[in-house]
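User: I'm designing a mutation panel for Coenzyme A biosynthesis bifunctional protein CoaBC and want to avoid disrupting the core. Could you give me a predicted structure to guide residue selection? Please restate the sequence first so the numbering is unambiguous.

Assistant: Good idea. Sequence first, for numbering, then the predicted structure tokens:
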Amino acid sequence: QEKRMLAGKRVLVTAGGTIERIDPVRYLTNDSSGKMGFAIAEEASRMGAEVTLVTGKTSVPLPPGVKAVRTESALDMMEAVLSRLQDNDIVIKAAAVADYRPAEQAQQKIKKKKSELTLQLVKNPDILKAVGERKTTQFVVGFAAETERVAEHAMDKLKRKNSDLLVANDVSAEGAGFGTDTNIVSFFDQNGLVEALPVLPKAEVARRLLTLIASRMEGGKTA
Ligand code: PMT
């Protein structure tokens, strides 16, 4: 019966990296492939959920059985997520959202200068934080990509962004993080560490995460 554990639930998943344009042919992005978010979306659909997958730039085929919404920048992704927030029961933010974007987007390709070129960056809004501020009954799950002091940073993000669960990955560890088919994650809730998992395929990480979410929601969590 585990298979249909999310029957009747609407799940929004974000995946991939955002693209922050410099000019019509150049942009800033990161190494996210979309694999982690796609695995969650596919597994949630298999468990019976109605899944909306909001993607940034990804490098693997879309999973079957989900409604995909393509976005580019953090600002686009924020609009796509917030406009759908109240239609969903669970929000899982596996996307790697750029913290900064170029202050200006040149309308024409920037010409080569004689010497250096300075790019000024401005801060992007935090989508997960905005979701945490607006959530009503949604169960909200954030990710944390860390390279040091993982637990401390994870707990800080969980509290600051008002999430129900946080999935921390040490992206500097072999077999974890960006681009790989496996991940090494720990789950945190408002009380601290829930579980630290060994290296596992991203599909299995997704299955364990969704099983935990389903059991927490069954336990009467409504806000
Ligand atoms: O896509 P893969 O190649 O499979 O790689 C998976 C992954 C490493 C990208 C994934 O497991 C992961 O860790 N995703 C979150 C990456 C990230 O942006 O982490 P962060 O610690 O910078 O952000 C924390 C949380 O806030 C994340 O849920 C992020 O989506 C969210 N955030 C961050 C910045 C921002 N402006 N808005 C956000 O919503």
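For picking mutation sites, this is relevant: The pocket of PMT is lined by residues 32-36, 74, 93-97, 99, 124, 126-128, 142-145, 157, 169, 171, 177-179 (CB under 6 Å). The chain has a mean pLDDT of 95.
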